[in-house]
Design goal:
Blueprint (H helix, E strand, L loop, with lengths): L8 E2 L13 H7 L5 E4 L6 E3 L2 E3 L2 E2 L6 H11 L6 H13 L3 H5 L10 H18 L11 H7 L13 H5 L3
Helix pairs in contact: 2-5, 3-5, 5-6
Length: 168
């Protein structure tokens, strides 16, 4: 791959890490540090050429939650190729320049929620514009997406004096 392009994109996506087709360290060595890498499992950063190359995970957790949420909020009758395209484009827009400079092709995993919301908004707009979803003004889309988003909230459990006697 490295013989044909200046910056080959290589994505060993098999899970778990022990089953990956290649390790990021090997890919950087084989391409003289030119590979852009995303993996299906988490890998630590790799030091190459005196710099730390952060390896991002590339899996369906980045696109599908936002795509699905956008389709639901839009009330879309179908999922079009254009909706998938805008989801991918919105994902790409959410990769910060410093992430790209460090070798990461996807946003950090801890940003998944925000990434999904951005993708959902783009999908709602596309569904509306292509006549596949309900009419929402651009200003109303973020609120509609937020209203449809589930926020996990768990009660705090505290043992009572009787629970301690039962081994809790």
């Amino acid at each position: 791959m490295a013989a044909g392009v200046a910056r080959p994109v290589i994505m060993p996506l098999s899970n778990p890490t022990s089953q990956a087709e290649a390790t990021p360290a090997d890919l950087l060595a084989w391409t003289n540090g030119r590979a852009l890498i995303a993996t299906g499992s988490p890998f630590d950063a790799v030091v190459w050429g005196g710099r730390s190359v952060r390896v991002g995970q590339g899996n369906n957790a980045f696109v599908f939650p936002g795509l699905g949420l956008g389709v639901l909020v839009a009330g879309a009758r179908e999922v079009s190729d254009a909706m998938c395209r805008v989801a991918a484009e919105r994902l790409a827009e959410q990769v910060a320049p410093d992430d790209l400079a460090g070798g990461r092709l996807f946003p950090p995993v801890h940003d998944l929620r925000g990434v999904a919301l951005g993708i959902a908004q783009a999908v709602v707009r596309e569904a509306r514009d292509s006549g596949l979803g309900r009419r929402l003004d651009d200003d109303a889309i973020p609120a509609a997406v937020a209203a449809a988003t589930w926020e996990p909230r768990y009660p705090r459990l505290c043992p009572t004096s009787g629970d301690q006697d039962r081994g809790f």
